[in-house]
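Structure in, sequence out. Go:
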């Protein structure tokens, strides 16, 4: 079963309670999610130059690709597994790599995908055919980019997210890999290890904080051996509005048993600068002889920290949430967000403090301001002599402006977009 850019692997592999799940990342681990995204997802990016494929399809030479690219691919696979709640990591079975490389060459040369390529195909080999029958296949992407494509699993034939299921398979132990500069093979039907004892379920997007750039159109939920014929899936946004979902056709027999659904198009906000929370509830998941309900929260977050907070709220690292700035008991200062706004926001070469009546003329001329970047570093502190603040030297991004004096102190967030 194939499609033009991504091939689904449908290969068999021998294989009433109410539970409320905790976050995989707790509220106070938001920064962990951001750091892992930057270090292990973005940090594993491989260019075509980095790939260093040495093959030649005109000569039917499978060649090889760089050790750096192989190691980065393994980093990205294990990043996805941790992100989804799988505590066990996978390794690389180097004995399979040559077979996978032969399979990648076949797909590259013929510009087509098949788990059973005919011997009439250019550059066909028995080793390549064997690897193709046990692998995820991608065309038009190499190394780590193909892995991200598998996790999205787009296309009509991939409604059961089989590629994703193999990468997140709870019993996976070692994979084989092959890559040209536009074809990829991931050998997934291989040795196994016991499912982790701490596994409750595998969700993608996972419970807790999830990087907004990785949110797929198809959501999935997996438990080894579970059945979902009677399962109903419901979702709500933070305001309690129910989001219509379509439960997709069930397919068992590969990876962990999984149910897949698509939230109605446009109902999931992947581009909000603020964190967006959704509740997911699955009723009537059959686990053994029990019908179990699972409920968890997904907090879609842009991979920057601290986040943009709504309204006059600011990020509090101690409570790990957006809070209204509180007055101090000692000086009884007024919160600065009650007495000024920032305009324009987003700014370009300047921003302007717009004072409200609550800020007396003497008070505001005795104020100082501090600009803080998204990493929490103070990058400028000056007296507020004029309301216009130059920002031409600030790179695009999220910033915070703290204004304080003897009467008030507080923070407003603003964006710079040159």
């Amino acid at each position: 079963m194939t499609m033009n850019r991504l091939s689904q692997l449908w290969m068999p592999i021998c294989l009433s309670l109410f539970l409320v799940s905790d976050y995989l990342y707790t509220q106070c681990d938001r920064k962990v999610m951001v750091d892992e995204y930057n270090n292990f997802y973005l940090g594993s990016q491989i260019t075509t130059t980095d790939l260093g494929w040495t093959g030649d399809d005109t000569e039917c030479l499978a060649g090889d690709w760089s050790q750096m690219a192989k190691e980065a691919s393994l980093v990205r696979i294990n990043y996805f597994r941790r992100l989804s709640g799988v505590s066990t990591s996978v390794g690389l079975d180097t004995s399979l790599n040559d077979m996978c490389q032969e399979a990648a060459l076949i797909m590259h040369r013929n510009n087509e995908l098949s788990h059973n390529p005919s011997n009439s195909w250019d550059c066909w080999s028995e080793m390549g055919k064997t690897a193709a029958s046990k692998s995820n296949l991608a065309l038009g992407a190499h190394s780590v980019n193909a892995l991200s494509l598998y996790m999205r699993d787009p296309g009509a034939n991939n409604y059961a997210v089989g590629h994703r299921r193999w990468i997140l398979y709870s019993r996976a132990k070692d994979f084989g890999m092959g890559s040209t500069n536009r074809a990829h093979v991931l050998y997934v039907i291989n040795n196994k290890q016991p499912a982790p004892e701490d596994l409750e379920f595998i969700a993608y997007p996972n419970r807790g904080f999830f990087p907004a750039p990785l949110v797929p159109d198809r959501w999935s939920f997996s438990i080894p051996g579970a059945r979902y014929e009677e399962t109903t899936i419901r979702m709500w946004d933070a305001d309690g509005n129910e989001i219509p979902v379509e439960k997709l056709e069930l397919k068992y027999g590969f990876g962990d048993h999984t149910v897949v659904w698509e939230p109605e198009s446009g109902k999931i906000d992947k581009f909000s600068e603020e964190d967006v929370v959704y509740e997911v509830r699955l009723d009537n998941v059959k686990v053994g002889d029990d019908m179990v309900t699972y409920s968890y929260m997904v907090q879609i977050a842009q991979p920057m920290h601290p986040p943009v907070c709504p309204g006059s709220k600011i990020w509090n690292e101690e409570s790990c949430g957006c809070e209204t700035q509180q007055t101090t008991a000692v000086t009884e200062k007024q919160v600065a967000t009650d007495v000024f706004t920032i305009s324009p926001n987003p700014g370009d070469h300047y921003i302007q403090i717009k004072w409200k009546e609550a800020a007396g003329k003497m008070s505001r001329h005795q104020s100082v301001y501090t600009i803080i970047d998204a990493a929490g570093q103070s990058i400028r502190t000056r007296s507020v002599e004029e309301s216009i603040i130059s920002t031409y030297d600030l790179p695009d991004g999220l910033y915070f402006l703290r204004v304080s004096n003897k009467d008030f102190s507080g923070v407003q967030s603003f964006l710079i977009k040159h």
